[in-house]
Design goal:
By secondary structure, the protein is mainly alpha-helical. Helices cover 39% and strands 0% of the residues. The radius of gyration is 27 Å and the shape is elongated. Keywords: Membrane, Transmembrane, Transmembrane helix.
């Protein structure tokens, strides 16, 4: 059998091959992570390498300043 016998001959076949290829590429990392990633034991604390770090953790909203009571001037 020649290699050209495996290629689709209609527009639908080309479209189905394209959609199948895109889905395969999109879901490969998800399947890999589900099957081969290390499992996390929820009864123990997270390891340091898996904890979320960064400036956004526990920083709160600092753009508006501290809260103050609402007065009648604010409502005018």
């Amino acid at each position: 059998m020649a290699l050209k016998d495996y290629f689709p001959r209609t527009k639908f076949g080309v479209a189905a091959l394209a959609v199948g290829s895109i889905c395969t590429l999109a879901f490969t990392p998800v399947v890999y992570k589900m099957k081969f990633a290390p499992k996390v034991d929820v009864s123990k604390p997270l390891p340091r390498s898996m904890s979320t770090r960064g400036a956004y953790v526990n920083s709160g909203s600092r753009d508006a300043g501290p809260d103050r009571p609402v007065s009648s001037k604010d409502l005018e």
